[in-house]
Amino acid sequence: MKKKLLVLLGFIAGTLLLFFYLNTDSLHEKLVKSSNEINELTPIKLDRFTTLENTDIEGKTMIYNYKISKVNAADIDITTFCATATDELIKRDCKNEELSELLNDGIKFKHAYRDESGTPIATIKLDKSDCFGK
């Protein structure tokens, strides 16, 4: 399952990179195209609890919208969830060459988590400063 997730994340990163560097459209248009490409693949089950539902764009920010199944937002220790998820996202995104290049170019990532009923759990934002020195 982990290998499948890494392959999928590599594909997503590659898709983003292709649109940024091989296309002459504006940055916003490139983000929109990348988001649309990813959305054609969604929903994507990432693990037994987490599903990437879709992506969206706000300015220079790519937003990943996740659904966490089998839990209610009220039952989650938000501090622990955010700390754990942030650490994992930083490890993954900052060490991924394609994603770190995008971060260096000023692209930001926002990971928004909701429970099955749609109640927000947490939103984690990553930008270039999160990878600096990591």
Automatic annotation (TrEMBL):
This is Uncharacterized protein. Gene3D superfamilies: 3.30.300.250. It comes from Morganella psychrotolerans.
